[in-house]
Amino acid sequence: MTMFLTITLLLSGCSDDEKYQEPAEKNNYTNTGLPVVYINTHSGEEVANKDVYEGATIEICDGNSKYNLNLQNIQIHGRGNSSWYTFIKKRSYTIKLDSKQGILGMPKDKKWCLIANYRDKTMLRNSVAWWLSAKLDIHNWTPRYRFVELVLNGTHRGTYQLVEQVKINDDRININEMSKYDTSPDKISGGYIIELDRGTNEDQWEWIMPNMHGDVHKLSIKEPKIDDGNESQFKYIYSYLMNIDRLFGENKIAEVMENYIDMESWAAQWLIFEISGTPEPNGPNSWYTYKDINNDKWYCGPVWDFDYKSFIPSTSNKWINRNVIYMPEMLKYEPFRETLKEVWSRIKPMLPELIAFIEQEGRLIELSEKLNWEIHNKNLIEDNRTENGDEFVSPQAARIMMIDYLKAKWEFIDNNLENI
């Protein structure tokens, strides 16, 4: 995934360009084996807002020169809802480049995420879910990522995941991308990215779905955003989704499942969330779906956000998300139950390879995470973060706990899916 940095990099930086500007002082984080991302805000101040971009420079240094990057004009803002205000000592960020760039071998785009994984002692909770999704190859797209070191305004912030942002794109969610002028019947039906989320986003059209189960469930239209779409498009997708909600509420399960639900992608997404044991679909949510043009089906994907209350040993022998969203109704429909079993039959043989992946990724980040927890372990203890149950053990011990959890969860699902 990444290459070790060269002695040349340690001595002189990652570019020979005559316009090269020496970034923040390079310390021992430059020889962990991970690429280093240097971001300096133009103001020199902390990134203080999660809704408004501010100007910055970025330099990415990797051992392979073809993956190096040096841009003087990018934009950055914070990301997350409750996490932005809670985990102020290690925050996540969204960056927007001034033109599409491939980063560290990933396909070109302007928008990227820097995920902090602040409360994840394994640092692999998201990685495991994305690995399963990519292996299944049922969802339209699974986010690609690279582990990196982040140096922001000259301060080493620790280990991050540089991740593709969820958006419509040929190399991301590959569905039709509308303009605000697409209002005719042959164009207005897609594409839309729809997120189940508790938060309020000023740039997204959102409303409460009355017949969904669980905590307060808002559907947000992630794309098109309010500034990029128009009233007709939002009324169309609102009507489409509220009709599905009505049919579930009226117990017209066969009608809605046959005509509107893509059962395979919903089954795959539910199983991945269930394997992780996260209650995220109940709240705060982060459950992504989409609808494409000239297609009445509602699809699930991509999977996202697994750092919260996940892979906990005490949840390895129970269903966590059986009674959320529309699952109580879906599980009454025998073809969906059969789809769940079929998807599980594809997941079941993956466990040995998944364990090998966890061990491999652990070796990849071992030097980096040592520095990361030297910075943040005290913060984690002071914040009293105990959602995952492994916050106060070593990363290696946390990954062993994760593997033991997965073995138990595999057995539970295999023994109980027949009669769910």
How are the SSEs ordered, and which strands pair?
Blueprint: H1 7-12, E1 36-41, E2 54-61, E3 69-79, H2 82-86, E4 92-101, E5 109-115, H3 125-136, E6 145-152, E7 155-164, E8 192-197, E9 205-208, E10 218-223, H4 231-249, H5 253-259, H6 263-276, E11 285-291, E12 299-300, H7 327-330, H8 334-347, H9 351-383, H10 395-416
Parallel strand pairs: 1-6
Antiparallel strand pairs: 1-2, 2-3, 3-4, 4-5, 5-7, 6-7, 8-10, 8-11, 9-10, 11-12
Helix pairs in contact: 3-6, 6-8, 9-10
List keywords for this structure.
single chain; globular; 12 strands; seven-stranded mixed β-barrel; alpha+beta; 420 residues; five-stranded antiparallel beta sheet
